[in-house]
Every structure is written in structure tokens, then in C-alpha cells.
């Protein structure tokens, strides 16, 4: 087993040298500069106690926005206009919600206080973003992740009401389609993501697509704080999915 110990310098080993489970390196820090370099290199941090562990799995689940699967049940929920959805209005609330969410077959959380602080820094710099789902004035779900170039790296999501996180993902997909993003990196495969259109690709293919996506220009700023009307989102996605015979 060969796992690299990161030096103080802002460098990472070749992702292709990762262990079979995807573990590449340990150590380093969660500075914005190191995190941005990691994402550009196809690497992400994932740990629940020190040292920091850096991963690049041999198979990567990603969602191409135009191949997102809008289920009939989710389409029905969007049409009912139960929720209001915003971007970047309450990043702290979303990351807290994700940290406190109960995970199936998991003890504790990997979103440590240090991780929260690191991603809040990325948010303040315009690299991290949140999607908030509201029921009235209550935050009931959402997701957050990192955006570099035309790539979005999903970090975590949560729901206090059924389907709230799915609504957040659907609205994120609409935004990414409009802005010509290449993909959503889902990092770790699960059945929930596969049902919503995630596909697994070999690491070498992911790294090639990633290299092109992060090279594209995209304005670093807070995303829209205006309301997104979920009914419009449903119609937009439904039209796109019908054209590709995926609905």
C-alpha cells in the first residue's frame, strides 16, 4: 500500500497512483488554494478525523446535466409548487443541514468544523455555492458544492421534508444546463444518484473531461439570489428530457 504524505508545497501526486479504493494522499491542509488545486486535479478530501485524506476513485460517478432523469413523481412535486428554491442565500444553513443530517449506515459526519470553515471560505471567494429549498420561511433541504470553470463538484445534500434535496438537484441541473456546464461530479456512487442519471466512468476518462471543463471561463460570483419558480423548472427539464427520450 502506497499512500503519499503531502508536503507543505501546493502539490498533489498523480491521481492515477491512488490505491484501488481511491485513497491517494494524506496530510496537507484545507486552504482555499489547496482545495481548488485538488478539485482541478480530480481529487477531493473525505475524512472524519485527522489526518486529512485525499481521494480519487478509479471509477467516478457524474451527472451530465442534459441526461438528468426527471422522474414522474419529481415532476409532479415540481408542478405542485410546494417549495421555493434559491441559490447562495443561506450557504451556512445548508452546510449545517448537511452536517447534521442522519446518514444511512454511517456514524457521525465527515463535515467537521474545519471542513465547514474551509468551504465557507470557498463560498466567500465565489467558488462554493448552495441551493436552498424553502417551505415558507423554513429551510427544509438543499445541497452545496464547488464550481470551477464549467465543472460542478457536488459535496453534500440534505432533506428535512421528503424530496427537498431532489428539488434542489433538479433546480441546480436547470442552472447548469443554461450555463453550459459539462457535468456534476458526484464523487461516490450510490443507488439514489444512479436513479437520477449518474453514470460511472473510468478515472482516466473523467480526468480528461475535467481538464477541459475547468479550463473554461466562468464568472466567479454569487449565483442568483432571486426566486426560481419550481414549476418553470419542471417544464424546462421535462421538455429537454422528452427530446432525448429519457422521460
Description:
This protein folds into 2 domains: 4-57, Leucyl/phenylalanyl-tRNA-protein transferase, N-terminal domain (Alpha-Beta Plaits), CATH 3.30.70; 61-243, Leucyl/phenylalanyl-tRNA-protein transferase, C-terminal domain (Aminopeptidase). 35% of the residues lie in helices and 23% in strands. It has helices at 32-40, 72-80, 91-100, 113-125, 164-178, 191-195, 203-214, 230-243; strands at 4-6, 23-27, 44-45, 53-55, 59-63, 84-87, 128-135, 138-148, 151-159, 183-185, 199-202. It has a 7-stranded mixed sheet with strand order 6-7-8-9-10-5-11, sandwiched between helices. A 4-stranded mixed sheet has the order 1-2-4-3, covered by helices on one side. The chain is globular and about 50 Å long.
Observed structural traits:
8 helices, four-stranded mixed sheet, Alpha-Beta Plaits, 247 residues, 35% helix, seven-stranded mixed sheet, 2 domains, Aminopeptidase, alpha+beta
CATH architect. name of the largest domain: 3-Layer(aba) Sandwich
Gyration radius, in Å: 18 Å
Please state the structural category.
alpha+beta
C-alpha end-to-end distance:
45 Å
Shape: globular
Q: Please count the helical segments.
A: 8
Q: Estimate the helix proportion, in percent.
A: 25-40%
CATH topology of the largest domain: Aminopeptidase
Question: How much of the residues is beta strand, in percent?
Answer: 15-25%
Amino acid at each position: 500500500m502506497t499512500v503519499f504524505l503531502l508536503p507543505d508545497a501546493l502539490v498533489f501526486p498523480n491521481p492515477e497512483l491512488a490505491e484501488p479504493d481511491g485513497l491517494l494522499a494524506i496530510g496537507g491542509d484545507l486552504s482555499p488554494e489547496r482545495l481548488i488545486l485538488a478539485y482541478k486535479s480530480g481529487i477531493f478530501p473525505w475524512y472524519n478525523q485527522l489526518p486529512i485524506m485525499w481521494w480519487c476513485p478509479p471509477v467516478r460517478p457524474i451527472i451530465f446535466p442534459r441526461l438528468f432523469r426527471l422522474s414522474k413523481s419529481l415532476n409532479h412535486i415540481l408542478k405542485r409548487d410546494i417549495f421555493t428554491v434559491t441559490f447562495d442565500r443561506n450557504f451556512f444553513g445548508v452546510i449545517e443541514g448537511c452536517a447534521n443530517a442522519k446518514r444511512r449506515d454511517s456514524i457521525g459526519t465527515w463535515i467537521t468544523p474545519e471542513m465547514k470553515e474551509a468551504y465557507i471560505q470557498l463560498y466567500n471567494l465565489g467558488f462554493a455555492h448552495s441551493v436552498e429549498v424553502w417551505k415558507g420561511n423554513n429551510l427544509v433541504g438543499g445541497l452545496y458544492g464547488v464550481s470551477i470553470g464549467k465543472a460542478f463538484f457536488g459535496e453534500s445534500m440534505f432533506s428535512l421534508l421528503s424530496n427537498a434535496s431532489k428539488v434542489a438537484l433538479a433546480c441546480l441541473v436547470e442552472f447548469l444546463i443554461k450555463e453550459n456546464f459539462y457535468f456534476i461530479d458526484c464523487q461516490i456512487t450510490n443507488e439514489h444518484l444512479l436513479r437520477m442519471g449518474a453514470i460511472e466512468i473510468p478515472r482516466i476518462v473523467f480526468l480528461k473531461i475535467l481538464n477541459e471543463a475547468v479550463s473554461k471561463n466562468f464568472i466567479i460570483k454569487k449565483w442568483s439570489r432571486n426566486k426560481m419558480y419550481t414549476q418553470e423548472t419542471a417544464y424546462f427539464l421535462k421538455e429537454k428530457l422528452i427530446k432525448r427520450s429519457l422521460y
